[in-house]
Specification:
By secondary structure, this protein is α/β, with parallel strands linked by helices. It has two domains: about 1-150, 3-Layer(aba) Sandwich (Rossmann fold), CATH 3.40.50; about 180-320, Glycogen Phosphorylase B (Rossmann fold, 3-Layer(aba) Sandwich). The protein has twelve helices and twelve strands. The strands form two sheets. Strands 3-2-1-4-5-6 form a six-stranded parallel beta sheet, sandwiched between helices. The termini are far apart.
Length: about 325
């Protein structure tokens, strides 16, 4: 039995879909292959899962910006050829968007997805052969798992397992004997940012505990922010540019991860790293960090946590282990 999963973006959503792979493998011994179609920028996430057979990258985000380019249409044609080339027994779209449903429609096989009553974009349901009503008030991880269980008729009470572990990657700038905490200060929206003063308090507290704060960043603006925070606590490190695989390696070796509403806090939780997620402009009820180890969602829309609250939770976790 061959299955294609369609969950293309964003980073947190892709991570939330990882347990579906483990559920399918445990429940359906006849499954020989589980392939996954995902945005090219997030392809390293399903590649971390040893039970994913093949990763099929798609570049909808990039293609939208250059639809007038001949090379773009050649890439689209090559993608369609690749996804049509394989025949599947089932195609499961756990995203429920028009774009993901169109991708699912390109593949050969029976297509399963959310019913129009609960899909994020109801029009997506028109492209599936079978649809299912999954409670919309459940956490995103469980909605993915329940949809798969409904589509393939197996129990929904399996233990949660993301199925991934941190990859090996060289991090020569980080002393291997040092305990470190990863501080994920950057996010895609400015209204999700936690104050620099709060990060400064946390960074200084970690240094006082002999835990090295490591601050990754992406853009030049994010790097400047990380440098300002790190400058207040001698010993803190602003990480060099890291790809997704290297970030997974960094997180997997860390003693603690603390971050704002960004996909990387979900990656830390999936890697079973003690994680504190900070919410400033969003509600974590249905999309907060969610795992089997130590994790906490602090704050909500319009009520960010104080630095003292985050430090108290971090202290609790460090003392308990």
């Amino acid at each position: 039995m061959r299955i294609l999963l369609v969950k293309t973006s964003s980073l947190g959503d892709v991570i939330h879909n990882l347990p579906v792979v483990r559920d399918l493998r445990r429940s359906l011994p006849e499954v020989t292959d589980i392939d996954w179609c995902v945005e090219e920028g997030f392809a390293d996430i399903p590649r971390l899962h040893p039970e994913v057979s093949d990763v099929i990258p798609v570049a909808v985000r990039r293609w939208r910006k250059s639809l007038g380019s001949l090379s773009t249409w050649r890439e689209i044609a090559a993608f369609r050829h690749r996804i049509v080339d394989s025949e599947y027994d089932a195609i499961l779209d756990t995203q429920g968007l028009f774009k993901s449903a169109l991708i699912a429609r390109q593949a050969r096989g029976l297509r399963y997805g959310y019913d129009a009553a609960v899909a994020r974009e109801p029009i997506a349901a028109r492209f599936y052969d079978r649809t299912f009503i999954i409670p919309p008030n459940a956490h995103a991880v469980e909605r993915n798992r329940w949809l798969a269980a409904a589509a393939f008729d197996y129990p929904v009470d399996l233990p949660l397992d993301y199925g991934i572990s941190a990859p090996d990657a060289e991090l020569p700038w980080l002393a291997p004997a040092q305990r470190h905490a990863v501080l994920l200060t950057a996010t895609s929206r400015d209204d999700k940012l936690w104050s620099e003063e709060a990060w400064t308090s946390l960074t200084r507290w970690l240094v006082a505990r002999d835990i090295v704060p490591v601050l990754p960043s992406g853009s030049a603006q994010e790097k400047q922010r990380a440098e300002r925070i790190a400058a207040t606590a001698p010993g803190a490190i602003v990480a060099p540019p890291l790809d997704l695989r290297s970030l997974a390696a960094l997180l997997g070796r860390s003693r603690l991860a603390v971050g704002v509403d960004t996909g990387l806090v979900h990656l830390a939780t999936a890697l079973n790293v003690p994680t504190i997620a900070i919410y400033v402009a969003t509600d974590p009820a249905l999309t907060g960090v969610y795992g089997t180890g130590f994790f906490r969602n602090l704050g909500t829309r319009g009520r960010p946590p104080l630095a003292a609250e985050v430090i108290a939770v971090a202290e609790q976790e460090l003392r308990s282990s």
